[in-house]
Amino acid sequence: MSNRKILVVDDEFTIRDMLRVALEMADYEVHEAGNAQEAMSLVVDVQPDLILLDWMMPGTSGIELARRLKKDELTAEIPIIMLTAKTEEDNKVQGLEVGADDYITKPFSPRELVARLKAVLRRTDPQSGGQAIVVNGLCLDPASHRVTINDRPVDMGPTEYRLLEFFLTHQERAYTRGQLLDQVWGGNVYVEERTVDVHIRRLRKALTIDNHENLVQTVRGTGYRFSTKAG
Predict the structure, then answer these.
(1) Calpha distance 84→68 (Å, rounded)
(2) Omega of the bond prior to 107 within 30 degrees of 0, cis?
């Protein structure tokens, strides 16, 4: 699990259910609220990493809730993505003016939503340039954007780097090609699933120093897994 907690606030159960499924498939921990009052108590209890907030809700609207959250110093730093059927430019401006970090107009694809959500988390995460990840002598340093194996530099393309970064932060779990596309390429880019295989081959080729290519394992009938255990 990514351990990232997402609070979905929408009065329509079907929307919440669709979002929950899409986000759980992308490894997020999902909490749901059907109105602003429920959302406020969950924000305190759960301390979400991001809030998906519907604009139009009975009672306190999403825009009013966003305004409240951004005025309170305890919740002001939580990123908010507004969800709405409103397409008029002034409404988008209003949403961004109260402090929303992004704005998605319904209907949207789950893949697009996950990609936009990941982008907002990257922008707002103070740890995104964080500590180096080391596994069996393989080191990925996000601050310098360098990869080494037993202190020897590893040359790889940007897509292979993102693949490796995802694998290192999501070890020991099998992912389908579709899930890897969502996580690494993002939902707003159309890429054939077989393209994943090409980049996996390139990643393995880059990791051939001291047999580290064996860490990227093929899972028959599913996809790929990064593991220090024998496949």
Answers:
(1) 18
(2) yes
Both 82 and 153 in a single domain? Answer: no
Whole-prediction pTM: 0.55
Could you give phi then psi for residue 31, rounded to 5 degrees?
-125, 145
Q: Which residue range is the domain that position 108 belongs to?
A: 5-124
User: Distance between CA atoms of 201 and 41, rounded to whole angstroms?
Assistant: 47
Cβ-Cβ contacts under 8 Å for 201 (sequence gap 6 or more) = none
Q: Which residues contact 188 (CB under 8 A, 6 or more apart)?
A: 111, 112, 115, 116
* pLDDT, tens only, 172-191: 989 999 888 877 876 555 67
Averaged pLDDT, 56-84:
88
Tokens of 107: 């209907």
- Residues 91-98: contacts with CB within 8 Å, 24+ apart? 91/55, 94/63, 95/55, 95/63, 95/66, 98/63, 98/66, 98/67, 98/70
CA distance 202 to 176: 18
Model pLDDT, residue 119? 82
Q: Rounded distance, CA 215 to CA 72, Å?
A: 45
- What's the pLDDT at 103? 83
Q: Is residue 231 part of a domain?
A: no
Q: Which residue has the tokens 């789950």?
A: 110
Instruction: Kindly state the helix (H) or strand (E) to which residue 7 belongs, with its residue range.
Output: strand 5-9
| Number of structural domains the chain divides into | 2
Boundary (domain end) residue, out of 64, 99, 124: 124
